[in-house]
Amino acid sequence: MFGQLRQWQPRRGLARALACVCVGALLIAWSNTAAAQDGSPEPREHSELDATVFAPFHAARGERVTQARTFVVRLTYPDEGRPHAVRWTLTLSGPGPQGAVLRRWSGMEQVGAGGKRVNLPWDGRADADARERRMLAPDGLYALRLLAVADAGTPREAQVEQQWQIAVQRGASTAPRVPAFQAGLQQLPRLDEEPGYRIVYANLHSQTRHSDGGAALDACHGAQEPQTAPFGPIDAYKYAQDHGLDALLTSEHNHMYDGSDGTNPAATPAEAKALYQTGLAEAAAYTNAHPGFLALYGMEWGVINKGGHLNIFNSDQLLGWERNARGELLADLETPKSDYAALYALMRERGWIGQFNHPAYAGQFLVDGQPLGYTPDGDAAMVLCEVMNTSAFSTNDQETETRRSNYEAACNRALAAGYHVAFSSNQDNHCANWGASYGNRTAVLVIADAANAPLSREQLFEALRARRVFATMDKHAQLLFTANGKLMGERFDNHGPLQLSTHFSNSAGRQAAAVAIFHGVPGGNGSVTQLSDQAELTVTPAPGPHVYYARLTQDDGNIVWSAPVWVNQLP
Questions:
Q1: Rounded to two decimals, what is the model's pTM?
Q2: Element (H, E) at 300
Q3: Are residues 451 and 413 in contact, defined by beta-carbon separation less than 8 angstroms?
């Protein structure tokens, strides 16, 4: 990283006179599968089911023999404080990806905005029957899967699925050997430009007072009423830079630029459009005044209910569908609500690029009724898919947040549909802790013009278009994945054997605990499955299209995902 870590002092006197601005935010890990079809009012943003599980990767030192630990399930449903019946199931399976289900916990909770916490002790044993619980679970990696379903069988049924790994380790480590990151980088074809690549550690999803973010940590209890919080984009950029990030995108909800989470009949188009332009200007000015940091401003388009959020990184115009009482569009360009095919076509035409935000496996980004439905326009426009986030409403500023969500299954669905997306990991901050709730980052390999040269928007966007990205839960990690010497993110034709190689380093000294190489068939709408548990693998694919990526688990449980490579195998 090329940012410096410094102590941030909030600017209490921030001007609150920016007119109109808004945006809805996300919650964190949900699979909304239905909307109100019973005549009831449409749910507000941020009112969805949220379910997470915290699973310590290692047992505590005092539990070396048993490997016992406690799993924590957290459930919230901030729907106007109304309680919802949420049935949850937690399963433990392994060791290995094909391991059997060893234990299962389940329950029913009445969950509202205050949420529920369920502690589930595990004694480290494989037997579920208490009368026969004698065998300790053998060493290895295990999968912990949470499934939470709210209002089952009703039009408002919602579902969340989470999956994480834990390690059972009583003996010596059997971690795979993974070559160093720099060694892999040096094997790539030399670039015309010197000094080559540098890694930009970014947070590409956050909100400020321009929509429903920007609240002080001691006053932040969820999404804010649009444009009411004290801190705006400039405060966010300063905070992120002072906390060591290289780049921050403030992505404001496109439908909140009228100052409302609903529709404000008194809003004026001029104020909404002016606020968006103010954000763009502030980002450009901050970047120019602070070499070494890239300030970005964009929008989070869409709604969760019957939709799905996505970020548009580089639009110079505000997109929307809401109109005031006079019928005036409160945006520069009209984009029909939840019409993703039309949005993708516009993005491709304008050269705009985007990111699927906290995607649900089902019920979101519908095209012709298909979740994460594929279109050639969408494939050209969408470059990233969030694979992991921290809680959008975290007030943690010590990088120790335990509420984290995993969207790998949904991103794999996008890959199987044919999308060429790399994985990203962001924080969706709504409180004034931009990039500080956890150490996760979206890491971008940017071609450097010269050593220590300022980073430009164009350089970053070029790297995003090339999908030269890895997603990491650890800001110190470096991950490289290649196929026959082709860098992750590339698409190429191949004939004969294919050598897949993973390279990893961590500047804080963390080591690899496990590595997995995954494979799928783009356009087949099938599954993406683990192919190997080694860092290097040589295969001869069947003729046709293939997608591969690597996932590395560190010895502290943090995960790093490479961008995929896409291979068209010739006969």
A1: 0.92
A2: strand 294-301
A3: no
